[in-house]
Design brief:
4-stranded parallel β-sheet; alpha/beta; about 20% strand; 5 helices; 4-stranded antiparallel β-sheet; single chain
Length: about 290
């Protein structure tokens, strides 16, 4: 039974256990539901009164809400909030360098359907000279794409079938279209043509591949793409992790991956020096 019909997304894909988009608030007076939903690319935090079938929005400054957890059954309005940084408090001195996201909307190839994304404009005062060229917000010669798992498929497919980006990073990304594995909603021909692993000859830019000991996305997919790009003469790197799962669990691996992505993009597309003393992985056809 619909509690409050609304043209929005109240749920999300359950990629991992423990994700929660709502909590029931029980009290002697009423039954409420604290929940989040996404509409036009932005998250909203609301309270739904089940008996009155009413919805009230909570005034918070956040654009992306992941999980809902309640600690007090009597609370149904925002009384305070804090932004807690995951790293050292010393990072606050660099707050002028942190980009605040801007919600953008753009048309897709499907008529009448738009997509939404967060655009993070450059905040570094030293690197803004070429930010807006011909009324664009980014430099078209230095844009890169990265994706994880199914997002890795998007990355690989975009690099194989489009020429928008100048480099890419795939983190244990699928290179077989999901229909080839989980369902039969498309023909065998379409499935084959939509799989980047079957179109390696179409890749035309540098790619770095991060692969774990994966039962979801088998390592041989990354190895095949790596071998094909290496043979083709494109700059390519393959980083494999022992004892790591689908979705990084070890902090040192997360840090290493972020650093290597940065170095890869900077070295092949950004063309500027990195101050940090980080040793890059070997890049075939480039080093």
């Amino acid at each position: 039974m619909p509690l409050f019909p609304l043209n929005a997304e109240f749920a999300r894909p359950l990629w991992v256990f423990g994700m929660n988009s709502y909590e029931v608030i029980q009290s002697e007076r009423k039954t409420l539901i604290a929940c989040s939903y996404r509409k036009r690319g932005m998250s909203h935090l609301v309270i739904i009164d089940i008996l009155l079938s009413s919805l009230s929005s909570l005034d918070i400054p956040f654009m992306d809400i992941q999980d809902i957890v309640t600690f007090n059954d009597e609370k149904s309005e925002v009384i305070d909030f804090q932004i807690i940084w995951s790293s050292s408090p010393d990072t606050l001195k660099y707050d002028s360098y942190f980009s605040l996201p801007e919600l953008i909307e753009f048309p897709t190839e499907v008529p009448g359907q738009n997509a939404y994304a967060y655009f993070y404009p450059l905040s570094n005062q030293f690197y803004q000279a070429s930010q807006e060229v011909e009324s664009r917000k980014v430099d078209g010669n230095r844009i890169c794409i990265t994706g994880v798992s199914a997002g890795g498929y998007t990355t690989l497919a975009t690099l194989a079938f489009r020429e928008t980006f100048r480099a890419g990073a795939s983190l244990y990304g699928k290179s077989l279209h999901r229909s080839c594995i989980s369902c039969t909603t498309v023909s065998e021909k379409d499935c084959y043509e939509r799989s980047p692993i079957n179109s390696v000859e179409k890749f035309s830019c540098p790619i770095i591949l991060f692969q774990v000991e994966d039962k979801v996305v088998l390592p041989d997919q990354a190895c095949k793409i790596y071998g094909a790009l290496k043979q083709k003469g494109l700059p390519v790197a393959l980083v494999e992790y022992e004892g790591e799962q689908h979705g990084f669990r070890k902090a040192e691996n997360i840090k290493f991956t972020l650093e290597q992505q940065m170095l890869f993009f900077v070295g092949l597309v950004g063309r500027f020096d990195v101050v940090d003393d980080i040793t890059p992985v070997k890049i075939d056809n480039f080093d």
